[in-house]
Design brief:
about 375 residues, alpha/beta, TIM Barrel, two-stranded antiparallel sheet, 13 helices
């Protein structure tokens, strides 16, 4: 019997509807139901961290959060990495703290300007997506990405937040075209090279993430800074690589971007939008896997919505993993705050507890894939 099956037998949720004094439908959680929900909510959080080794004082809070199951994933940046041996030891020490499911150990390693494993740290560097799409055959691309994935896997990381499957419809886009992050202006070419990227990573037992849904390539702004409205620039062609990859059953995870399309949702960007994630990505395109938000501290949304509203909207959108990746702006108690916001929203009827269970099932299923990959490595 798996741990997940055991916990569901041992810790059954007892959720009792009631009506508050105001007449609003709400839910009372018993202690066992709360414990189970806390565990599941923890799996929905991915955060950045500050340190480079586990025994640093500033890692004490992270150690506790991992050991207590308050976070389900960590994203690594340049400031966390000194060299190959340091990173591998650091990752192994953190992973050993996790009492149940393995942690997602993530990195943005696209090649070109967006990379975290650098030559100065002893790693190999790889060309941009634009260079690969314009100059290399699919087989050459696959070899490039197999080298990238092997390096990620050897470091102890298990999730690459790539490839970028945005179509380069606006070469002047500050976030995509200008940084040469797109394979091509042709959706079919983007699909083919993205598939080579994904397949190579799977061969090396590394999970991948398609980004940035529903498509960032036409944007005139950068979501890191402020509102990025694609209402009048986006077109259906930008959805083709996502659709084709979903149909190929190659997708581990999809990242929802902070991209506003007022024709679909007049209030929220894709990362917080039920219309984008549940109705379009899941119901229309048929994706039933893990959806991760882009960093929820980006200027595109943090300047426009309160943190509590962001948390509740992200969960209700159908997103599974809430990403808070900038550790310098990260409240040490953020996981506890997020957990309490979600539990309170469940109690007040703003979030259905089944929404949390759905995400937990998707996440734990993907982590089972990680464990199977690790078992194959040891044979």
């Amino acid at each position: 019997m798996s741990f997940r099956q055991y916990t569901y037998l041992l810790v059954i949720l007892f959720l009792f509807p009631k009506v508050s004094a105001s007449g609003q439908s709400s839910v009372a959680l018993d202690s066992l139901g709360r414990i189970q929900l806390e565990h599941e909510i923890g799996q929905m959080l991915m955060v950045g961290i500050r340190g480079t080794q586990l025994d640093m004082e500033l890692m004490a809070q992270t150690q506790q959060q991992v050991s207590d199951g308050e976070i389900g994933g960590i994203i690594f940046f340049k400031h966390n990495i000194k060299n190959k041996s340091q990173l591998k030891n650091f990752i192994n020490e953190i992973q050993n703290l996790s009492p149940t499911l393995p942690l997602f150990m993530a990195v943005d390693e696209e090649g070109g300007k967006v990379r975290r494993l650098r030559k100065s740290q002893g790693f190999n560097e790889f060309p941009s997506a634009a260079y690969v799409g314009n100059n290399l055959s699919l087989e050459e691309a696959r070899e490039i990405y197999l080298g990238m994935a092997d390096q990620i896997h050897t470091a102890g990381l298990n999730l690459n937040l790539g490839p970028v499957v945005d179509v380069n419809t606006n070469p002047s886009s500050p976030a995509i075209g200008k940084l040469k992050r797109s394979f091509s202006s042709d959706p079919e070419t983007v699909y083919n090279y993205s598939k080579a990227f994904v397949d190579a990573h799977h061969e090396a037992s590394v999970l991948t993430t398609l980004k940035h849904y529903p498509g960032h390539g036409s944007s005139r702004e950068d979501t890191h800074n402020d509102l990025t409205d694609i209402t009048h620039s986006w077109n259906d062609q930008e959805q083709i690589p996502f659709k084709r990859l979903i149909e190929s059953s190659s997708v581990d995870m999809i990242m929802a971007g902070h991209l506003f399309n007022h024709d679909l949702d007049a209030k929220y960007p894709a990362s917080l939008s039920y219309a984008h994630i549940q109705k379009n990505l899941r119901d229309k395109l048929g994706f039933q896997g893990v959806v991760i938000t882009d960093d929820l501290q980006m200027g595109a949304i943090i300047k426009r919505f309160s943190l509590d509203e962001i948390i509740i909207a992200a969960v209700n959108s159908g997103s599974d993993i809430l990403q808070f990746s900038d550790p310098l702006d990260l409240d040490d108690d953020l996981p506890a705050h997020i957990r309490e916001v979600i539990l309170q929203a469940i109690a007040e009827g703003e979030i259905d507890a089944d929404r949390i269970h759905e995400s937990y099932e998707r996440i734990s299923s993907l982590k089972d894939k990680l464990k199977r990959g690790n078992n194959n490595d040891s044979k």
